[in-house]
Amino acid sequence: MRQESSRRKNYQLGGTSPNEIYKPGFPMNMFGNVKLFAIIGVVVIVSFIAVAFLSSRANNSAANDVDDLPTATPIASATTDGSVTPSATVVPKTFSKAETVVSAEKQYTATIKTSKGDITVKLYADKATNTVNSFVFLAKQGYFDGITFHRVIKDFVVQSGDPTGTGTGGPGYNTAQEPNEIPNKRGTLSMAKVGNAKDFGSQFFINLKDNVALDYNQSNPFYPFGEVTGGMDVVDAIASSPTGAGDKPNPPITITTVEITES
Predict the structure, then answer these.
(1) Fewest beta carbons within 10 Å, which of 56, 127, 221, 230?
(2) Would the pTM of this model clear 0.85, i.e. be above it?
């Protein structure tokens, strides 16, 4: 105690006022000014909130760019009533492979009969033989009968080919994509796939405009296997239908059946 008392006396030698013994510099001196400290605190909090908001918007924008691809595995979403999309209870037909049912030397036409009307499609059996073969095989098996257009994005694509209606269903086998230089112009059909995969299942989409970002010379190409030759007005009617969560038409739009003719 004596030593501490002696030090205090030494600090005050030379006539220094007790109030001037020590004055903290910036930024510690702010703690002595309550109003200034409070203002700075508010500014810091507001800054953090603004940064978090901008980051969230940027992340959402990037996610939306990814979701616009005609993927066969869309991100799960809530339904229009706010509940989570349930797992499909429908057990679709599955196959180990597509039997050979087409010839590259013949011409094939598909008539997609929907609840909005008929869509006539010329299939490119000579340019995408395996793709057309899988599509025709599934159509003849009644695989597409009664399914919905589970994804409709105005000015982009309408998508179908999944019996479960969830965007995750498939026929039980995959078909390797067949590269060609046919552009994804308005009215062409291409197969949806998972990410940058080189194969696909049964889901297909119809281009509503010239989607050059999906073409053969892009990093993640989609190769057309057919083109609408009649009923594009029906496709446009499907595209203009109201949609709910997950870009699903509400009320649903169904495919009654797909009829195949050859010549």
Answers:
(1) 56
(2) no
The residue written with tokens 């062409």 in the block is 188
What is the structure's pLDDT at 92? 78
CA dihedral (64, 68, 69, 72) positive or negative:
positive
Q: How far apart are CA 176 and CA 189, in angstroms?
A: 16
* HSE (side-chain half, CA atoms, 13 Å) at 7: 3
Please choose, from the candidates 171, 224, 163, the residue with its C-alpha nearest in 3D space to the C-alpha of residue 202: 171
**Nearest of 131, 108, 153 to residue 260 by alpha carbon:** 108
Q: What is the pLDDT of residue 35?
A: 63
For residues 116 and 66, the answer to whether their CB atoms sit within 8 Å is no
Tokens of 51: 């940064």
| Residue 114 pLDDT > 80 | yes
pLDDT at 215: 98
Asked whether the beta carbons of 224 and 184 are under 8 A apart, the reply is yes
Residue that wins the pLDDT comparison between 58 and 203: 203
Integer Cα distance of 213 and 221 in angstroms: 8
Q: Which helix H or strand E contains 96, and what residues bound it?
A: none
What are the Cα distances from residue 129, in Å, to 64, 124, 208? 33, 7, 24
Percentages (nearest 5) of helix, strand, coil residues in the chain = 30, 20, 50
Q: What are phi and psi of 29, to 5 degrees?
A: -70, -15
Burial of 14 (0-12, 13-18, 19+ CB in 10 A): exposed
State mean pLDDT over 3-20: 44
Q: Please report, for residues 161, 163, 168, the alpha-carbon distance to residue 116 in angstroms, rounded to integers and kept in the order given.
A: 16, 18, 24
One-letter amino acid for residue 126 of the chain:
D
